[in-house]
Amino acid sequence: MSDHESTYVPKTAFERWMDSRLPIIRFGADYMALPTPKNLNYWWTFGAILTFCLITQIVTGVVLAMHYVPHVDHAFGSVERIMRDVNGGDLIRYTHANGASMFFLAIYIHMMRGLYYGSYKAPREMIWMLGVVIFLLVMATAFLGYVLPWGQMSFHGAVVITNLIGSIPVIGESITTWLWGGFSVDNPTLNRFFSLHYLLPFVIFGVVVMHLWALHHAGQNNPVGILIPKERTAKDTVPFHPYYTVKDGFALLVFLILFATFVFFNPNALGHADNYIPANPLQTPAHIVPEWYLLPFYAILRAIPDKFGGVIAMFGSIGVLFILPWLDTSKVRSMRYRPTMKLFFLIFVAVALLLGWCGAQLPDAPVIPGLPSPVLFDGELNSYLWLTRLLTAYYFAFFLIIMPIVGLKETPLPVPASIAEPVLDHDESKA
């Protein structure tokens, strides 16, 4: 699949001239003809959806940057002016703000699909690691963008997160001072965040190109999780176009319905009301919370009593994804044929969702209000803090303990020898 020969034949004089100098038409034609496993399901459409989300964010972000003023005295007012005075400004701003949430929704589904079907296993380790790099860059870009409206949650969120970096030994204070541009979150900080927020999407686009290049070279995974030998390419694959362009297009339309529902009917549902209050350094919000897509990692940060330990745990929760290809010891890729690991994976998904829920709660609030006080649940034990610690323990155990041990001990179900033969054999037995 990854080494298929070019089938493009220039038909006009212009195409022949172009092909001999810049073969971009050949590249597009070869990509459309790329042999693709014929059993890909709708979980594989999120790559195209993410491409759409990235382009949408870049285009709307460039337009917003034309009107935004990165100054502490004018940032909040410039955002309000975009909403009220710029033609279509409210639509552009709501599309950009909700687009971040849609971007992360698609990223999380895309990553969970890769985790379930073992898309990180050899020879696709580089595809997975580049994907994690993209995830980190998107998280950084989203945080920087959240600060730009300069509302209450924006300002105090920046104070909290940048102060966490200061807990890193030796270099922490220097990095914090550089980010602040001084000795507190102020106008130089806003200028730095605006510059980085504008720059990073183009860096993400570059890494996405590398991600697709690695995918083109190693070939796509499939739900069965088997490698397709060259002699079976014709039987087990179909051209990317028109089969998967149509499928991706339909999935994108369904996704756009969800996207449009938020943009047109409830654009502030995923935001925080306090961010419509201008930043006031002298008035701290009662409960500082990040956007929903960062809540699981915020919960992990709060689960550790030591400040530096929390930072290590938060970054470690993402860093562990880089070494995932070497933590999974199973020879079977797809969890479709690994019933024990599938159960642990479903628990992991539930744990990730619960971590997000805990991240939105006050850490010392009771999980079960009004519960009597037996020894097991009195005081702190009946709090989101302890629930978060249990969930955090499972999060790391899933990667560092469960995945290596289950991979060695589990007896997987029989894996088909190819993509096409089981279906054909089944049809012939019916006849």
UniProtKB/TrEMBL annotation:
Its main location: membrane. PROSITE patterns: CYTB_CTER (PS51003), CYTB_NTER (PS51002). InterPro entries: Cyt_b/b6_C (IPR005798), Cyt_b/b6_C_sf (IPR036150), Cyt_b/b6_N (IPR005797), Cytb/b6-like_sf (IPR027387), Cytochrome_b (IPR030689), Cytochrome_b_C_euk/bac (IPR048260), Cytochrome_b_N_euk/bac (IPR048259), Di-haem_cyt_TM (IPR016174). Keywords: Electron transport, Heme, Iron, Membrane, Metal-binding, Respiratory chain, Transmembrane, Transmembrane helix, Transport. The chain crosses the membrane at residues 42-70, 91-111, 126-148, 160-181, 193-215, 249-265, 308-327, 343-363, 383-406. Residues 14-224 form the Cytochrome b/b6 N-terminal region profile domain. It is a multi-pass membrane protein. Pfam families: Cytochrom_B_C (PF00032), Cytochrome_B (PF00033). Residues 230-417 form the Cytochrome b/b6 C-terminal region profile domain. The keyword Transport applies. It is found in: Membrane. Its cofactor is heme b. The keyword Transmembrane applies. Binds 2 heme groups non-covalently. The main subunits of complex b-c1 are: cytochrome b, cytochrome c1 and the Rieske protein. PANTHER family: CYTOCHROME B. Component of the ubiquinol-cytochrome c reductase complex (complex III or cytochrome b-c1 complex), which is a respiratory chain that generates an electrochemical potential coupled to ATP synthesis. Belongs to the cytochrome b family. This is Cytochrome b.
